[in-house]
Structure to design on (478 residues):
């Protein structure tokens, strides 16, 4: 089973700003349509490795970005993946 | 097609020509990257989002705005001025503005005044278009909340004493709205150093972009009530428009083709350098002013010292209708300019040219000295003809 993590944003502006802020950072990530199992205000989310999500969150917050939520998705073939909300403060 | 139609002296209305990249970028955006920004999640949408973000950053760099979230796009400067005037002012407020202001300021303020929501005071201006700073000092009232500053006049080119006026307002806790329709892309503007609260700009004049582009800067801590609400592609389940900037003040599909062109216009300004553009326009104004100054029967308006003006010159010819001069310039010489009141009736009252108006000549970055020589030759012939 493969899992990937997602950061969601309140508006498109912050999604694109996140991409711009992170483009010169040594992490790989991708801007993707928000998966259906995640509820988000903005249609574009950032997908990254679950090993990196805390580091990415910290960089974004240091750059005054407004973030909405953090999720882990367990993918299993073509079945709808299960999303778990992450509490990154703990 | 009139082959003579090639001398353009109406850059204060809209700049022409645009840098070549501006045309190409607008077309490319429509042909190849046309997704609705902020809406779907596909790559074209993302490309449109990125383009708009880059344009915000470019505006930020041009005006030294540190946070691109404070850059809001609008149709033009008029739209941006309306967003500030109608989104900031509240019932009982008093507003100061100057006689050089454009109808884009006079009319929205006039409506609020007629609706008995606000009161206003006009700061008179000299014959050359400079606001009376002593009068300004005495014009504040306890409920004054906003001073509107016309950074440079679209009739005379007169540059307002921005720093003195902003200092004067801020000493009393009054916010300033700067209308940069004639100065963005031509004069250096720094919202942090100049302590500007609200700045309105247009994209199709000095910024060399397409019409239908423009916007505003809103300084932190000054949140405006939105003038329009609607689709943003975010928080779609709520019937509440997003509160966070810049979406707070933007609704509906953005003009991404226009903004693609605008970005290239701004990039052109960065490539050439704003100082170089300023010097080039100053040189053209000096050259034109000196030639016109030597003509008999011709009255010039605006500052005689070109350092105090952008490249806009107004004139009239004794006993000659300015509309007629404009018509002859175009029909006989292929020279395009603007005649009349230029949407700034109070400026003409200050200069004593109301209601007749003036002939306005506004060279731009791409104007050549030889174009001015042709223009001057044409005006000389018109004077000879009309004054016998």
């Amino acid at each position: 089973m493969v899992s990937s993590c997602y950061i969601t944003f309140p508006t498109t502006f912050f999604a694109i700003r996140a991409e711009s802020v992170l483009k010169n950072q040594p992490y790989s990530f991708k801007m993707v349509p928000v998966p259906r199992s995640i509820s988000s205000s903005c249609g574009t989310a950032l997908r990254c490795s679950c090993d990196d999500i805390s580091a990415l969150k910290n960089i974004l917050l240091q750059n005054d970005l407004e973030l909405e939520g953090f999720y882990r998705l367990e993918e299993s073939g073509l079945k709808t993946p299960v999303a778990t909300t992450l509490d990154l403060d703990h | 097609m009139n082959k003579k139609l090639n001398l353009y002296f109406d850059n204060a209305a809209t700049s022409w020509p645009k840098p070549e990249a501006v045309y190409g970028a607008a077309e490319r955006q429509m042909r190849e990257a046309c997704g609705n920004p902020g809406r779907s999640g596909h790559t074209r949408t993302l490309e449109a989002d990125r383009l708009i973000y880059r344009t915000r950053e470019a505006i930020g760099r041009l005006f030294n705005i540190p946070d691109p979230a404070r850059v809001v796009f609008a149709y033009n400067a008029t739209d941006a001025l309306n967003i500030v005037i109608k989104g900031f002012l509240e019932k009982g407020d008093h507003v100061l503005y100057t006689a050089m202001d454009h109808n884009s300021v006079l009319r929205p303020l006039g409506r609020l005044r007629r609706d008995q929501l606000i009161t206003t005071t006009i700061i008179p201006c000299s014959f050359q278009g400079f606001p009376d700073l002593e009068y300004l000092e005495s014009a504040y009232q306890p409920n004054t909340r906003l001073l509107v500053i016309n950074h440079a006049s679209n009739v005379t080119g007169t540059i307002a004493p921005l720093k003195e006026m902003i200092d004067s307002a801020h000493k009393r806790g009054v916010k300033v709205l700067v209308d940069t329709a004639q100065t963005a892309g031509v004069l250096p503007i720094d919202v942090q150093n100049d302590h500007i609260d609200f700045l309105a700009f247009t994209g199709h004049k000095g910024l060399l972009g397409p019409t239908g582009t423009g916007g505003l800067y809103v300084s932190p801590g000054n949140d405006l009530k939105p003038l329009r609400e609607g689709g943003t592609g975010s928080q779609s389940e709520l019937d509440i428009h997003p509160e966070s900037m810049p979406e707070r003040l933007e609704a509906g599909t953005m003009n991404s083709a226009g903004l693609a062109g605008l970005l290239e216009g701004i990039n052109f300004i960065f490539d050439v350098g704003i100082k170089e553009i300023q010097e080039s326009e100053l040189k053209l104004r000096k050259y034109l002013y000196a030639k016109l100054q030597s003509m008999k029967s011709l009255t010039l308006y605006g500052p005689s010292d070109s350092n105090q003006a952008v490249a806009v010159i107004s004139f009239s010819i004794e006993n000659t209708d300015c509309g007629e001069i404009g018509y002859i310039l175009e029909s006989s010489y292929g020279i395009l300019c603007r005649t009349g009141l230029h949407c700034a009736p109070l400026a003409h009252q200050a200069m004593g040219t109301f209601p007749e108006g003036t002939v306005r000549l506004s060279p731009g970055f791409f104007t050549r000295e030889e174009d001015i020589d042709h223009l001057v030759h044409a005006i000389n012939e018109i004077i000879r003809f009309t004054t016998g």
Observations:
- The interface with chain A takes residues 37-42, 45-46, 49-50, 52-53, 57, 67-69, 232-236, 242, 244-247 of chain B (CB under 8 Å).
- Chain B has two domains: 7-18+274-386, 20-272.
